[in-house]
Amino acid sequence: MLIILGVVTFLDRINISVAGSSIMSDLNLSPEEWGWVQSAFILSYGLMQIPMGAFGDRRGHRKVLALIVLWWSLFTALTGMAGGLASLLLIRFMFGVGEAGSSPCSTGVISRWFEKHEVGKAQGYVWAASRMGGALTPFVVIPVMMWLGWREAFYLLGALGVVWSIVWYAFYRDKKTTDTPYIYKESNEKTSINWKEIVRNRQFWIICAMYFFYAFGSWFFFSWFPTFMELGRGFDKSELTYAVAVPFIMSMIGNITGGYLTDKLTKKYGLKVGRKALGSSSLAVSAVCMFLAAFIPGKMTVFIFLSLCFGIFDLMLPSAWALCIDLGKKNAGAISGAMNTFGNIGGFCCGILFGYLVQASGNYNLPLYMIAGMLIISAVLFAFINPTKPIVKED
Hints:
Layout: H1 2-18, H2 20-27, H3 31-47, H4 49-59, H5 61-79, H6 85-99, H7 102-113, H8 119-147, H9 150-171, H10 195-199, H11 202-232, H12 237-269, H13 271-295, H14 299-313, H15 317-328, H16 332-361, H17 366-383
Helix pairs in contact: 1-8, 1-9, 3-6, 3-16, 4-5, 4-7, 4-16, 5-6, 5-7, 5-9, 7-8, 7-16, 8-9, 8-12, 8-15, 11-12, 11-14, 11-16, 11-17, 12-13, 12-14, 13-14, 13-15, 13-17, 15-16, 16-17
């Protein structure tokens, strides 16, 4: 169910980028106005990560996940009813409020249902599924747009989320009844969150900063990548479908592989090797690939290096989210929400800085050097995390 949710989450998130030119033309939106539409989602999505993660930890993930998927599915469908800039801004902001709970609540579910040596693999599959959703989006949305129109594509994907919510609420249960040693066992008491203890912990701020700089790389692929390939390296629109899909497929492979590696290495060598050594090295190698993509000219060369970059730095993603369980224990949802909030702030900064650098220099390659530098900083910060010292002490 979480794998299906990962696919649905990114189908609903990236469909607006695929349909962007049609929406702008139909609603008479300028590029500047379209930028605000994209930012409305990132703003609410980033701001609500912590509250939604904490909400799921406190109230139970059966009800909360069913509710938030139903919520964002409603606003996915309402996107198809937008009549102008004002309504679209409001709808996309409210859509982000719901989607903000997906990743932290999924992490909370994994912390309650999977044993310690399996959480990385579980995270890997869930994140791989989200990348699969990104790869599938143009192949799902474009045919519907050509056959029925862009509005109908949003109605269809909104209905898909409603079905998921119903099935999830019918079959999922919050509590585990066996004696198997899971990361965190549910009790009859509501989970309390000691934010004073969390924010005083140095590791909490390191993991948040690490994800902030990592997100400069990930949000490049979520936002500027198609534009860079078209305007920066001369890809035709007919080539963009596969040029966008292949890096997402590489990321999917990276997440699955990273999930297996972090669990296998952790079991054999311990958390310091299985989590931080894998994460730090993956980020460092991906920074080299990003640098080479900027430095070496040519269409196929940049396609290869950027595909490798996306796949390699997402090798570390299951490790990062598994760390939220290792360090957060019963508050894994809240801490993963905080980490993802900082990631979205990084993504927001990346989008703005990318545009300013291109406008000032007229060079689409220059921002890639910036992103390579941010990935190096993320790799260094990852190396300073100690996964054997939890942020939250067990009672």
